[in-house]
């Protein structure tokens, strides 16, 4: 059970980044649909648990140390090539969003110009990719429980301090920018781009154990944990939509309302999660192109970092609302492949059981 919980924590830590923890993703993918957004969050929870379980179990069966093995196993040669390209491209895209999110956090909380905040995060990310990435990510990843406590506190505060009727909140919600045309599609897209982002880590996690039950439970617990945080953040966004609807980092605003100390603590945790994701994404993209530890690798990381810094000027909110849905649509192929692999696995298991009984 301990191994499953560790896997669940790593799964949650991989998915949570600037968009998730800040509330901006939740605002566009769920809160903008009013009370129906909660059905989208429940759908996302079920899919996070199901897909996480299956991908980690495939990684366990293949004993893989790379997402390529899992992708080609479930997608085949040609579709696998396309999905691998999408994943690699998306790693860089998420790093750009993390840089933009860091800039927005520094500006909103500390009054530091967003360009300076983004540059600080870029330089830290590049420097970390030069050294022992795994140790740093493990340290930062241990902050995830603190984030869960903060999200619970902020959601409770938002619920008990709401001074707008649900009918008015629903009207406000429908005036927000939405990532999709309806709550069902939005829930699917949200899971799709997050799974596309998380599959490199999930595949490698699966390869660390030969026990498929342990691997599967890690995916299920991680999915439930993500869903719980998703629903709590949606509560905070929805019940205080009148105050946070136009902000880049809405959760930070609510944290500061509780107390300036809570606001500072939330900003530190948020920046740590952004840093965690930025390093993972930039490093993951670079190692797909070049062997780590070499001077060429360091040059590539530096070039990618500053290219990401330039791209981050598009703006955090706009990047979340544009790149994530596009990647979500592309990621549907991956979700479909996982479901087909699961059905085939079930059929094979049932066939083997029948043969065993017959003999």
From TrEMBL:
<feature type="transmembrane region" description="Helical">
    <location>
        <begin position="140"/>
        <end position="160"/>
    </location>
</feature>
<feature type="transmembrane region" description="Helical">
    <location>
        <begin position="78"/>
        <end position="100"/>
    </location>
</feature>
<feature type="transmembrane region" description="Helical">
    <location>
        <begin position="297"/>
        <end position="316"/>
    </location>
</feature>
<feature type="transmembrane region" description="Helical">
    <location>
        <begin position="214"/>
        <end position="238"/>
    </location>
</feature>
<protein>
    <recommendedName>
        <fullName>Membrane protein YkvI</fullName>
    </recommendedName>
</protein>
<dbReference type="InterPro" id="IPR038728">
    <property type="entry name" value="YkvI-like"/>
</dbReference>
<keyword id="KW-0472">Membrane</keyword>
<feature type="transmembrane region" description="Helical">
    <location>
        <begin position="322"/>
        <end position="343"/>
    </location>
</feature>
<keyword id="KW-1133">Transmembrane helix</keyword>
<feature type="transmembrane region" description="Helical">
    <location>
        <begin position="112"/>
        <end position="133"/>
    </location>
</feature>
<feature type="transmembrane region" description="Helical">
    <location>
        <begin position="180"/>
        <end position="202"/>
    </location>
</feature>
<keyword id="KW-0812">Transmembrane</keyword>
<feature type="transmembrane region" description="Helical">
    <location>
        <begin position="33"/>
        <end position="57"/>
    </location>
</feature>
<feature type="transmembrane region" description="Helical">
    <location>
        <begin position="258"/>
        <end position="285"/>
    </location>
</feature>
């Amino acid at each position: 059970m301990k191994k499953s919980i560790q896997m669940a924590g790593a799964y949650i830590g991989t998915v949570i980044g600037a968009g998730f923890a800040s509330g901006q993703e939740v605002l566009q993918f769920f809160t903008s649909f009013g009370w129906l957004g909660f059905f989208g969050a429940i759908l996302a929870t079920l899919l996070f648990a199901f897909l996480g379980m299956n991908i980690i179990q495939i990684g366990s069966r293949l004993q893989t140390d790379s997402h390529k093995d899992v992708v080609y196993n479930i997608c085949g040669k040609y579709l696998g090539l396309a999905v691998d390209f999408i994943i690699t491209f998306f790693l860089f895209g998420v790093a750009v969003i993390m840089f933009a999110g860091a800039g927005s956090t520094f500006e909103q909380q500390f009054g530091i110009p967003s360009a300076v905040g983004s540059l600080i995060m870029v330089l830290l990310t590049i420097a970390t990719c030069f050294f022992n990435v795994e140790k740093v990510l493990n340290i930062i990843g241990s902050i995830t429980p603190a984030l869960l406590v903060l999200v619970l506190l902020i959601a409770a505060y938002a619920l008990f301090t709401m001074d707008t009727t649900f009918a008015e909140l629903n009207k406000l919600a429908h005036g927000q920018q939405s990532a999709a045309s309806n709550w069902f599609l939005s829930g699917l897209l949200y899971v799709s781009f997050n799974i596309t982002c998380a599959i490199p880590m999930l595949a490698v996690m699966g390869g660390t154990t030969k026990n498929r039950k342990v691997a599967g439970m890690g995916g299920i617990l991680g999915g439930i944990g993500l869903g719980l945080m998703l629903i709590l953040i949606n509560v905070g966004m929805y019940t205080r939509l009148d105050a946070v609807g136009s902000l880049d980092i809405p959760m930070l605003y609510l944290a500061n309302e509780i107390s300036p100390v809570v606001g500072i603590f939330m900003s530190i945790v948020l920046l740590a999660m952004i840093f965690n994701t930025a390093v993972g994404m930039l490093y993951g993209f670079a190692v797909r192109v070049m062997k780590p530890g070499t001077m060429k690798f360091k040059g590539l990381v530096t070039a990618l970092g500053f290219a990401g810094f330039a791209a981050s000027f598009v703006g955090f909110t706009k990047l979340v609302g544009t790149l994530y849905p596009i990647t979500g649509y592309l990621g549907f192929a991956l979700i479909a492949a996982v479901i087909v692999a699961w059905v085939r696995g079930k059929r094979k298991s049932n066939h083997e059981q029948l043969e065993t009984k017959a003999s």
